Amino acid sequence: MKVFSWKNVASGILAILSISIFSQAQAAKPLLEGGNEVGFVVRASDGTAWGWGDNRNGELGDSTGEDSTIPVKAMDIADIVDISMDDFYSWSAAALSDGTVWVWGDVLGRMTHYMPFQIRGFSNIVDVAAGPWPMAAVGADGSLWEYALNSVFNDDEPRQIMGVYNAVSVAVSLNNPYVLRNDGTVWTWEQVSLYDETLGYSVVVDQLTQIEGLTDIVQIDGGYDHALALRADGTIWAWGKNGYGQLGDGSFENSNSATQVHGLTGAYDISAGYRQSAAVLSDGSVWTWGRWKSSITDFVSIPEQVGGFTNAVQVSTGRGLGGLVMDRDGDVVTYNVNTISSIPNEDDSASLRVGPVLESQIPTACRPTYFMNGNLHLPCVSLGGSTLFDVELSLQADGNLRFAVDAAVEFTPTTQLQQRNCMTNFTNGEANIACLVAMDVTLGLDNLLNVVLTHSADSDTTTLLDLTQITSY
Protein backbone atom coordinates (compact mmCIF):
# COMPACT_ATOMS: atom_id res chain seq x y z
CA MET A 1 0.00 0.00 0.00
CA LYS A 2 1.13 3.55 -0.73
CA VAL A 3 -0.48 6.60 0.81
CA PHE A 4 -0.25 10.05 -0.72
CA SER A 5 -1.20 13.09 1.37
CA TRP A 6 -1.71 16.79 0.79
CA LYS A 7 -2.42 19.61 3.18
CA ASN A 8 -3.96 23.03 2.68
CA VAL A 9 -3.58 25.55 5.49
CA ALA A 10 -5.29 28.49 3.79
CA SER A 11 -7.51 30.53 6.09
CA GLY A 12 -6.14 28.62 9.04
CA ILE A 13 -8.09 25.47 8.12
CA LEU A 14 -6.22 22.20 7.92
CA ALA A 15 -7.57 19.47 5.66
CA ILE A 16 -6.08 16.21 4.55
CA LEU A 17 -6.67 14.39 1.28
CA SER A 18 -5.24 10.90 1.38
CA ILE A 19 -5.06 8.44 -1.47
CA SER A 20 -4.55 4.87 -0.36
CA ILE A 21 -3.25 2.80 -3.25
CA PHE A 22 -3.31 -0.99 -3.15
CA SER A 23 -1.45 -2.69 -5.96
CA GLN A 24 -3.30 -5.56 -7.62
CA ALA A 25 -0.17 -6.90 -9.30
CA GLN A 26 3.57 -6.77 -8.91
CA ALA A 27 4.50 -7.18 -12.58
CA ALA A 28 7.65 -5.40 -13.66
CA LYS A 29 7.59 -2.91 -16.51
CA PRO A 30 9.47 -3.84 -19.71
CA LEU A 31 11.74 -1.00 -20.82
CA LEU A 32 13.49 0.01 -24.03
CA GLU A 33 16.57 2.23 -24.45
CA GLY A 34 18.77 3.09 -27.43
CA GLY A 35 22.26 4.57 -27.24
CA ASN A 36 25.47 5.00 -29.22
CA GLU A 37 25.28 1.97 -31.57
CA VAL A 38 23.86 0.01 -28.61
CA GLY A 39 20.38 -1.17 -27.69
CA PHE A 40 19.06 -2.26 -24.30
CA VAL A 41 15.86 -3.86 -23.07
CA VAL A 42 14.71 -4.59 -19.54
CA ARG A 43 12.71 -7.81 -19.20
CA ALA A 44 9.42 -7.69 -17.32
CA SER A 45 9.99 -11.13 -15.79
CA ASP A 46 12.94 -10.19 -13.58
CA GLY A 47 13.98 -6.61 -14.39
CA THR A 48 17.31 -7.68 -15.92
CA ALA A 49 19.01 -5.61 -18.67
CA TRP A 50 19.97 -7.17 -21.99
CA GLY A 51 22.04 -5.29 -24.56
CA TRP A 52 23.57 -5.74 -27.99
CA GLY A 53 25.90 -3.79 -30.26
CA ASP A 54 29.21 -2.00 -29.66
CA ASN A 55 31.03 -3.11 -26.49
CA ARG A 56 34.55 -1.73 -26.82
CA ASN A 57 34.16 0.37 -23.67
CA GLY A 58 31.97 -2.02 -21.71
CA GLU A 59 28.70 -0.65 -23.09
CA LEU A 60 26.92 -4.01 -22.68
CA GLY A 61 28.00 -4.51 -19.07
CA ASP A 62 28.78 -8.22 -19.53
CA SER A 63 32.47 -7.86 -18.53
CA THR A 64 33.81 -9.09 -21.92
CA GLY A 65 34.36 -5.92 -23.93
CA GLU A 66 33.35 -7.90 -27.03
CA ASP A 67 30.66 -6.70 -29.48
CA SER A 68 27.52 -8.80 -29.76
CA THR A 69 24.77 -9.07 -32.37
CA ILE A 70 22.47 -10.87 -29.92
CA PRO A 71 21.38 -9.59 -26.52
CA VAL A 72 23.72 -10.34 -23.60
CA LYS A 73 22.92 -9.81 -19.94
CA ALA A 74 24.43 -6.96 -17.93
CA MET A 75 26.02 -8.68 -14.95
CA ASP A 76 24.91 -8.61 -11.31
CA ILE A 77 21.85 -6.36 -11.59
CA ALA A 78 18.11 -7.10 -11.67
CA ASP A 79 14.81 -5.50 -10.64
CA ILE A 80 15.55 -2.41 -12.75
CA VAL A 81 12.89 0.31 -12.54
CA ASP A 82 14.55 2.82 -14.88
CA ILE A 83 17.40 2.74 -17.39
CA SER A 84 19.08 5.50 -19.40
CA MET A 85 21.88 5.62 -21.99
CA ASP A 86 24.12 8.50 -23.02
CA ASP A 87 24.34 9.01 -26.81
CA PHE A 88 27.74 10.74 -26.64
CA TYR A 89 30.14 8.82 -24.39
CA SER A 90 28.11 5.60 -24.64
CA TRP A 91 27.40 4.57 -21.07
CA SER A 92 24.35 3.47 -19.11
CA ALA A 93 22.76 4.12 -15.74
CA ALA A 94 20.07 2.06 -14.03
CA ALA A 95 17.96 2.58 -10.94
CA LEU A 96 17.00 -0.61 -9.11
CA SER A 97 13.92 -1.30 -7.02
CA ASP A 98 16.04 -1.05 -3.86
CA GLY A 99 16.83 2.60 -4.71
CA THR A 100 20.46 2.01 -5.69
CA VAL A 101 22.06 3.32 -8.91
CA TRP A 102 24.47 1.34 -11.10
CA VAL A 103 26.53 2.49 -14.10
CA TRP A 104 28.67 0.87 -16.79
CA GLY A 105 30.47 1.78 -20.01
CA ASP A 106 32.48 4.97 -20.60
CA VAL A 107 30.86 6.74 -17.65
CA LEU A 108 30.76 10.51 -18.21
CA GLY A 109 33.82 10.04 -20.43
CA ARG A 110 35.97 9.80 -17.28
CA MET A 111 36.00 6.17 -16.17
CA THR A 112 35.32 2.83 -17.89
CA HIS A 113 33.44 -0.05 -16.29
CA TYR A 114 32.96 -3.30 -18.19
CA MET A 115 30.27 -4.44 -15.76
CA PRO A 116 27.76 -2.54 -13.60
CA PHE A 117 29.28 -0.54 -10.77
CA GLN A 118 27.24 0.85 -7.87
CA ILE A 119 27.54 4.58 -7.22
CA ARG A 120 27.89 5.15 -3.52
CA GLY A 121 25.83 7.89 -1.94
CA PHE A 122 22.63 7.25 -3.89
CA SER A 123 19.58 5.86 -2.06
CA ASN A 124 15.85 5.69 -2.76
CA ILE A 125 16.35 6.74 -6.41
CA VAL A 126 13.41 6.16 -8.76
CA ASP A 127 14.50 7.88 -11.99
CA VAL A 128 17.88 8.42 -13.70
CA ALA A 129 19.18 10.19 -16.79
CA ALA A 130 22.63 9.53 -18.30
CA GLY A 131 24.33 12.25 -20.32
CA PRO A 132 27.72 13.65 -21.27
CA TRP A 133 27.60 15.73 -18.08
CA PRO A 134 26.14 15.39 -15.54
CA MET A 135 24.03 12.37 -14.63
CA ALA A 136 20.75 13.36 -13.00
CA ALA A 137 18.49 11.43 -10.63
CA VAL A 138 15.24 11.79 -8.71
CA GLY A 139 14.64 10.49 -5.20
CA ALA A 140 11.41 8.88 -4.04
CA ASP A 141 10.83 11.97 -1.88
CA GLY A 142 10.95 14.29 -4.92
CA SER A 143 14.54 15.38 -4.31
CA LEU A 144 16.84 16.19 -7.25
CA TRP A 145 20.42 14.91 -7.56
CA GLU A 146 23.37 15.08 -9.93
CA TYR A 147 26.53 13.01 -10.32
CA ALA A 148 29.47 14.50 -12.20
CA LEU A 149 32.59 12.64 -11.06
CA ASN A 150 35.67 14.88 -10.93
CA SER A 151 33.95 18.14 -11.74
CA VAL A 152 34.90 21.45 -10.19
CA PHE A 153 32.12 21.20 -7.64
CA ASN A 154 32.06 17.55 -6.55
CA ASP A 155 34.36 14.56 -6.60
CA ASP A 156 32.74 11.15 -6.86
CA GLU A 157 29.70 11.61 -4.60
CA PRO A 158 26.18 12.53 -5.77
CA ARG A 159 25.16 16.07 -4.93
CA GLN A 160 21.64 17.20 -4.09
CA ILE A 161 20.29 20.17 -6.02
CA MET A 162 18.77 22.42 -3.39
CA GLY A 163 15.45 24.14 -3.91
CA VAL A 164 13.71 21.26 -5.70
CA TYR A 165 11.56 18.94 -3.61
CA ASN A 166 8.86 18.03 -6.12
CA ALA A 167 10.91 16.40 -8.89
CA VAL A 168 9.18 13.76 -11.00
CA SER A 169 11.70 12.78 -13.69
CA VAL A 170 14.95 14.00 -15.26
CA ALA A 171 16.65 14.21 -18.65
CA VAL A 172 20.07 15.33 -19.87
CA SER A 173 20.92 16.94 -23.22
CA LEU A 174 24.64 17.48 -23.87
CA ASN A 175 25.64 19.51 -20.77
CA ASN A 176 22.11 20.62 -19.96
CA PRO A 177 20.20 18.71 -17.26
CA TYR A 178 16.42 19.07 -16.98
CA VAL A 179 13.89 18.21 -14.30
CA LEU A 180 10.14 17.77 -14.64
CA ARG A 181 8.36 18.95 -11.50
CA ASN A 182 4.97 17.76 -10.32
CA ASP A 183 3.36 21.07 -11.29
CA GLY A 184 3.99 20.23 -14.97
CA THR A 185 6.86 22.68 -15.45
CA VAL A 186 10.38 21.90 -16.69
CA TRP A 187 13.56 23.48 -15.30
CA THR A 188 17.29 23.36 -15.87
CA TRP A 189 20.01 24.17 -13.38
CA GLU A 190 23.64 25.19 -13.06
CA GLN A 191 26.02 26.23 -10.32
CA VAL A 192 26.92 29.92 -10.26
CA SER A 193 29.00 32.11 -8.01
CA LEU A 194 27.07 34.93 -6.33
CA TYR A 195 28.28 37.61 -3.97
CA ASP A 196 26.73 37.33 -0.49
CA GLU A 197 26.58 40.80 1.09
CA THR A 198 26.04 39.35 4.56
CA LEU A 199 29.06 37.08 4.37
CA GLY A 200 31.14 39.54 2.40
CA TYR A 201 32.31 37.02 -0.20
CA SER A 202 31.00 34.96 -3.11
CA VAL A 203 29.28 31.62 -2.61
CA VAL A 204 28.40 28.88 -5.09
CA VAL A 205 24.65 28.23 -5.39
CA ASP A 206 22.34 26.22 -7.62
CA GLN A 207 20.58 28.48 -10.10
CA LEU A 208 17.31 27.09 -11.48
CA THR A 209 15.86 28.38 -14.76
CA GLN A 210 12.43 27.49 -16.08
CA ILE A 211 12.10 26.42 -19.72
CA GLU A 212 9.78 28.93 -21.38
CA GLY A 213 6.57 27.77 -22.98
CA LEU A 214 6.20 24.47 -21.11
CA THR A 215 3.13 23.76 -18.96
CA ASP A 216 1.15 20.63 -18.12
CA ILE A 217 4.13 18.44 -19.06
CA VAL A 218 3.98 14.71 -18.24
CA GLN A 219 7.17 13.37 -19.88
CA ILE A 220 10.59 14.72 -20.91
CA ASP A 221 13.55 13.24 -22.77
CA GLY A 222 16.99 14.56 -23.67
CA GLY A 223 18.88 13.99 -26.92
CA TYR A 224 22.43 14.88 -27.88
CA ASP A 225 21.79 18.60 -28.27
CA HIS A 226 18.02 18.99 -28.00
CA ALA A 227 15.17 17.94 -25.72
CA LEU A 228 11.51 16.96 -25.98
CA ALA A 229 8.50 17.37 -23.70
CA LEU A 230 5.07 15.73 -23.90
CA ARG A 231 2.07 17.69 -22.72
CA ALA A 232 -0.98 16.14 -21.10
CA ASP A 233 -3.00 17.13 -24.19
CA GLY A 234 -0.85 14.86 -26.39
CA THR A 235 1.17 17.59 -28.12
CA ILE A 236 4.98 17.48 -28.27
CA TRP A 237 7.30 20.41 -27.63
CA ALA A 238 11.00 20.72 -28.41
CA TRP A 239 13.94 23.07 -27.82
CA GLY A 240 17.69 23.21 -28.40
CA LYS A 241 19.78 22.75 -31.54
CA ASN A 242 17.93 22.17 -34.80
CA GLY A 243 20.52 21.88 -37.57
CA TYR A 244 19.12 18.47 -38.56
CA GLY A 245 15.43 19.24 -38.05
CA GLN A 246 15.34 17.42 -34.72
CA LEU A 247 12.91 19.95 -33.22
CA GLY A 248 10.31 18.98 -35.81
CA ASP A 249 8.87 22.47 -36.19
CA GLY A 250 9.39 22.68 -39.97
CA SER A 251 12.57 24.75 -39.71
CA PHE A 252 16.26 24.25 -39.11
CA GLU A 253 16.55 27.15 -36.66
CA ASN A 254 17.75 26.64 -33.10
CA SER A 255 15.35 27.56 -30.29
CA ASN A 256 16.03 28.27 -26.61
CA SER A 257 12.31 28.23 -25.83
CA ALA A 258 9.97 25.34 -26.45
CA THR A 259 8.39 25.13 -29.88
CA GLN A 260 5.58 22.77 -30.85
CA VAL A 261 6.40 19.76 -33.02
CA HIS A 262 4.50 20.18 -36.27
CA GLY A 263 1.34 18.21 -36.95
CA LEU A 264 1.44 15.64 -34.14
CA THR A 265 -1.39 15.21 -31.64
CA GLY A 266 -2.37 12.30 -29.46
CA ALA A 267 1.26 11.48 -28.68
CA TYR A 268 1.81 8.81 -26.02
CA ASP A 269 5.57 8.28 -25.82
CA ILE A 270 8.55 10.38 -26.96
CA SER A 271 12.26 9.84 -27.52
CA ALA A 272 15.06 12.33 -28.22
CA GLY A 273 18.22 10.78 -29.66
CA TYR A 274 21.37 11.85 -31.45
CA ARG A 275 19.97 14.71 -33.58
CA GLN A 276 16.75 12.82 -34.22
CA SER A 277 13.42 12.41 -32.46
CA ALA A 278 10.54 9.94 -32.44
CA ALA A 279 7.10 9.47 -30.94
CA VAL A 280 4.37 6.85 -30.51
CA LEU A 281 0.83 8.12 -31.02
CA SER A 282 -2.33 6.86 -29.33
CA ASP A 283 -3.19 4.78 -32.42
CA GLY A 284 0.06 2.79 -32.06
CA SER A 285 1.77 4.48 -35.00
CA VAL A 286 5.42 5.63 -34.93
CA TRP A 287 6.63 9.00 -36.23
CA THR A 288 10.18 10.34 -36.50
CA TRP A 289 12.09 13.43 -37.62
CA GLY A 290 15.62 14.86 -37.74
CA ARG A 291 18.66 12.83 -38.79
CA TRP A 292 17.05 9.42 -39.03
CA LYS A 293 17.47 8.62 -42.73
CA SER A 294 20.97 9.71 -43.64
CA SER A 295 23.93 11.22 -41.84
CA ILE A 296 24.87 13.25 -44.93
CA THR A 297 22.04 15.25 -46.46
CA ASP A 298 18.58 13.74 -45.93
CA PHE A 299 17.28 15.58 -42.87
CA VAL A 300 13.60 15.79 -41.92
CA SER A 301 12.20 18.86 -40.15
CA ILE A 302 8.55 17.72 -40.16
CA PRO A 303 7.55 14.36 -38.59
CA GLU A 304 7.18 11.42 -40.95
CA GLN A 305 5.33 8.21 -40.21
CA VAL A 306 7.39 5.03 -40.08
CA GLY A 307 5.45 2.44 -42.04
CA GLY A 308 4.50 -0.90 -40.57
CA PHE A 309 3.61 0.04 -37.00
CA THR A 310 0.04 -0.11 -35.72
CA ASN A 311 0.42 -1.35 -32.14
CA ALA A 312 3.62 0.29 -30.84
CA VAL A 313 3.80 1.19 -27.16
CA GLN A 314 7.34 2.55 -26.77
CA VAL A 315 10.05 4.01 -29.00
CA SER A 316 13.71 4.83 -28.37
CA THR A 317 16.27 6.51 -30.60
CA GLY A 318 20.02 6.57 -30.11
CA ARG A 319 23.07 7.65 -32.08
CA GLY A 320 22.59 5.24 -34.97
CA LEU A 321 20.05 5.98 -37.69
CA GLY A 322 16.50 4.88 -36.93
CA GLY A 323 15.53 3.43 -33.57
CA LEU A 324 13.89 0.69 -31.51
CA VAL A 325 10.19 -0.03 -31.06
CA MET A 326 8.34 -2.27 -28.59
CA ASP A 327 4.80 -3.40 -29.41
CA ARG A 328 1.97 -4.36 -27.09
CA ASP A 329 3.04 -8.02 -27.19
CA GLY A 330 6.45 -7.07 -25.82
CA ASP A 331 8.26 -7.76 -29.11
CA VAL A 332 11.21 -5.46 -29.89
CA VAL A 333 12.31 -4.53 -33.42
CA THR A 334 14.54 -1.94 -35.11
CA TYR A 335 13.47 0.50 -37.84
CA ASN A 336 15.36 2.56 -40.42
CA VAL A 337 13.88 4.28 -43.49
CA ASN A 338 10.70 2.18 -43.32
CA THR A 339 12.70 -1.04 -42.95
CA ILE A 340 11.70 -3.05 -39.87
CA SER A 341 14.04 -5.77 -38.64
CA SER A 342 13.56 -8.25 -35.83
CA ILE A 343 16.13 -8.69 -33.06
CA PRO A 344 17.12 -12.23 -32.04
CA ASN A 345 16.81 -13.30 -28.43
CA GLU A 346 19.80 -14.26 -26.32
CA ASP A 347 20.16 -17.77 -27.79
CA ASP A 348 19.33 -16.70 -31.37
CA SER A 349 16.38 -19.10 -31.45
CA ALA A 350 13.55 -16.60 -31.87
CA SER A 351 12.75 -12.90 -31.97
CA LEU A 352 13.35 -10.76 -28.90
CA ARG A 353 10.36 -10.44 -26.56
CA VAL A 354 10.52 -8.66 -23.20
CA GLY A 355 6.85 -8.46 -22.19
CA PRO A 356 4.25 -8.76 -20.95
CA VAL A 357 3.41 -5.11 -21.53
CA LEU A 358 1.39 -3.46 -18.77
CA GLU A 359 -2.07 -2.03 -19.37
CA SER A 360 -0.85 1.51 -18.71
CA GLN A 361 1.84 1.16 -21.42
CA ILE A 362 -0.73 0.54 -24.15
CA PRO A 363 -1.64 3.78 -25.97
CA THR A 364 -5.27 4.84 -26.02
CA ALA A 365 -7.07 8.00 -26.99
CA CYS A 366 -7.01 8.95 -23.30
CA ARG A 367 -3.94 9.49 -21.22
CA PRO A 368 -3.72 7.61 -17.91
CA THR A 369 -4.65 9.30 -14.67
CA TYR A 370 -1.95 11.71 -13.53
CA PHE A 371 -1.13 14.17 -10.74
CA MET A 372 -0.33 17.80 -11.45
CA ASN A 373 -0.25 20.86 -9.21
CA GLY A 374 -1.23 18.64 -6.30
CA ASN A 375 -4.51 17.64 -7.96
CA LEU A 376 -5.68 14.31 -9.35
CA HIS A 377 -6.69 14.35 -13.02
CA LEU A 378 -8.96 11.64 -14.45
CA PRO A 379 -9.01 11.97 -18.26
CA CYS A 380 -11.91 10.64 -20.34
CA VAL A 381 -14.58 10.09 -17.70
CA SER A 382 -18.11 9.17 -18.76
CA LEU A 383 -20.89 10.83 -16.74
CA GLY A 384 -23.50 8.47 -18.07
CA GLY A 385 -23.64 9.67 -21.67
CA SER A 386 -21.44 9.34 -24.75
CA THR A 387 -19.42 12.50 -24.03
CA LEU A 388 -16.09 12.04 -22.23
CA PHE A 389 -14.89 14.64 -19.74
CA ASP A 390 -11.65 15.39 -17.92
CA VAL A 391 -12.33 15.36 -14.19
CA GLU A 392 -10.06 17.13 -11.72
CA LEU A 393 -10.14 16.30 -8.01
CA SER A 394 -8.69 18.95 -5.73
CA LEU A 395 -8.69 19.77 -2.03
CA GLN A 396 -10.25 23.10 -1.08
CA ALA A 397 -9.34 25.41 1.81
CA ASP A 398 -12.56 24.49 3.62
CA GLY A 399 -11.57 20.83 3.68
CA ASN A 400 -13.96 19.72 0.94
CA LEU A 401 -13.08 17.83 -2.19
CA ARG A 402 -13.85 19.70 -5.39
CA PHE A 403 -14.85 17.59 -8.38
CA ALA A 404 -14.56 19.67 -11.53
CA VAL A 405 -15.42 18.65 -15.08
CA ASP A 406 -12.86 19.93 -17.59
CA ALA A 407 -11.41 22.01 -14.73
CA ALA A 408 -14.34 24.42 -14.97
CA VAL A 409 -17.80 23.06 -14.07
CA GLU A 410 -18.29 21.68 -10.58
CA PHE A 411 -20.62 18.74 -10.00
CA THR A 412 -21.73 16.39 -7.25
CA PRO A 413 -21.65 12.81 -8.55
CA THR A 414 -24.58 10.65 -7.54
CA THR A 415 -23.94 7.75 -9.90
CA GLN A 416 -21.00 5.66 -10.95
CA LEU A 417 -18.41 7.20 -13.23
CA GLN A 418 -16.50 5.07 -15.70
CA GLN A 419 -12.88 5.79 -16.61
CA ARG A 420 -10.91 3.43 -18.87
CA ASN A 421 -13.15 0.50 -17.94
CA CYS A 422 -12.78 1.28 -14.21
CA MET A 423 -15.60 2.32 -11.91
CA THR A 424 -15.65 5.21 -9.43
CA ASN A 425 -18.19 5.49 -6.59
CA PHE A 426 -18.65 8.65 -4.52
CA THR A 427 -20.24 7.96 -1.12
CA ASN A 428 -20.24 10.11 2.02
CA GLY A 429 -17.28 12.20 0.91
CA GLU A 430 -15.26 9.18 -0.16
CA ALA A 431 -14.32 8.20 -3.70
CA ASN A 432 -13.53 4.56 -4.41
CA ILE A 433 -11.77 4.15 -7.74
CA ALA A 434 -11.20 0.60 -8.97
CA CYS A 435 -8.46 -0.15 -11.52
CA LEU A 436 -6.92 3.29 -11.68
CA VAL A 437 -4.05 3.30 -14.19
CA ALA A 438 -1.34 5.52 -12.73
CA MET A 439 1.50 6.96 -14.82
CA ASP A 440 4.89 5.93 -13.54
CA VAL A 441 6.29 9.25 -14.77
CA THR A 442 4.54 10.91 -11.84
CA LEU A 443 3.98 8.19 -9.28
CA GLY A 444 6.61 5.57 -9.79
CA LEU A 445 3.74 3.08 -10.14
CA ASP A 446 2.58 1.26 -13.23
CA ASN A 447 0.10 -1.41 -12.15
CA LEU A 448 -3.67 -1.60 -12.12
CA LEU A 449 -4.59 -0.16 -8.76
CA ASN A 450 -7.49 0.10 -6.36
CA VAL A 451 -7.64 3.65 -5.03
CA VAL A 452 -9.55 5.11 -2.11
CA LEU A 453 -9.88 8.90 -1.85
CA THR A 454 -10.88 10.36 1.50
CA HIS A 455 -10.82 13.81 3.05
CA SER A 456 -10.77 14.65 6.74
CA ALA A 457 -10.39 17.65 9.02
CA ASP A 458 -8.37 15.53 11.43
CA SER A 459 -4.82 16.88 11.72
CA ASP A 460 -3.47 13.79 13.50
CA THR A 461 -1.65 12.43 10.44
CA THR A 462 1.79 10.86 10.15
CA THR A 463 2.75 12.95 7.12
CA LEU A 464 1.72 16.50 6.25
CA LEU A 465 2.81 17.96 2.94
CA ASP A 466 2.48 21.16 0.99
CA LEU A 467 -0.27 21.11 -1.62
CA THR A 468 2.37 21.01 -4.36
CA GLN A 469 4.26 18.04 -2.96
CA ILE A 470 3.66 14.31 -3.17
CA THR A 471 5.31 11.59 -1.15
CA SER A 472 4.70 7.96 -0.31
CA TYR A 473 5.23 5.91 2.83
UniProtKB/TrEMBL annotation:
The family database entries (InterPro entries) matched by this protein are listed as: Ran_GTPase-activating, RCC1/BLIP-II, Reg_chr_condens
Report keywords, A-Z: Signal
Q: Which PROSITE patterns does the UniProt record give?
A: RCC1_3
May I ask which residue range the UniProt record assigns to the signal sequence? Answer: 1-27
Keyword rRNA-binding, does the record have it?
Answer: no
This protein's GO cellular component annotations are: cytoplasm
The GO terms this record gives for MF are: guanyl-nucleotide exchange factor activity
Pfam families in UniProt: RCC1, RCC1_2
**Identification of the protein by name:** Uncharacterized protein
Provide the species name.
Answer: Candidatus Thiodiazotropha endoloripes
